[in-house]
Design brief:
The protein contains six helices and eight strands; from the N terminus they run H-H-E-E-E-E-H-E-H-E-H-E-E-H. By secondary structure, the chain is of the alpha+beta class. It has two domains: about 55 residues; about 140 residues, Glutaredoxin, CATH 3.40.30. The protein is globular and about 120 Å long.
């Protein structure tokens, strides 16, 4: 019984020795192959290509990559009513830069910026289309109230009425005044929520007219 136990121990020991030898040989072969592969990679990366040799001898100026044009966002067309009750569309006024302003006669900030809008309109009316759009809800603001406000203050810019709230919806007008600057091709250039000054309005329009 004792001899059999010793025999089993010797068998296990021999198996372990053989297994360790085989494992060592396989690992040695693996690492040798890896070292050879790394040497090849290093040689490839160090060896200059014909292109790199030519570039090192090239004394010409480096090429300049042009900055891509900014993505343009087309204005959304919508219908509104003019002072005479006719239905017109925003797209009817493409061909010149557009100042699209949403307002109401009860809005304090709207009233505050209107004298400046009227002044800029009188200076640029031949080159810029001003669309001063009254947000009419039928109760707080009506066509009658808006028209009277414009007449009482002697404003000369064209007035329109968003009777169906179509423009307010398409341009996400959640607060007034809101002003959208549109170029002559019908692309939105800038969006202002809140009153803007005469200087800001002139600066943006001068940039469009100078293109």
């Amino acid at each position: 019984m004792k001899n059999k136990k010793i025999l089993w121990i010797l068998v296990v020991f021999v198996i372990l020795i053989v297994g360790a030898t085989v494992l060592y040989q396989n690992l040695s072969k693996y690492y040798a192959e890896q070292e050879e592969e790394n040497e090849i990679k290093q040689q490839v990366s160090i060896t200059p290509t014909p292109e790199s040799e030519n570039s090192s001898n090239n004394t010409s100026e480096p090429s300049i990559t042009e900055t891509p044009e900014p993505t343009m966002h087309p204005a959304i067309d919508f219908s509104m009513q003019d002072i005479d009750g006719n239905s017109v569309s925003l797209s009817d006024y493409y061909g010149k830069p557009i100042v699209l302003n949403f307002w109401a006669s009860w809005c304090g900030p709207c009233k505050g910026e209107m004298p400046e809008f009227n002044k800029v309109y009188l200076d640029l009316k031949d080159d810029v289309n001003f669309l001063m759009v009254d947000l009419v809800d039928g109760s707080r603001e009506t066509i009658k109230k808006g028209s009277k406000f414009i007449e009482d203050n002697g404003y000369e810019f064209p007035v329109f009425f968003d009777v169906d709230q179509e423009g307010a919806y398409y341009y996400s007008v959640y607060a007034i005044p809101s002003t959208i600057i549109i170029d002559k091709d019908g692309n939105i250039v800038n969006y202002h929520q809140g009153a803007i000054s005469e200087s800001v309005l002139r600066k943006e329009l001068d940039a469009l007219l100078g293109e």
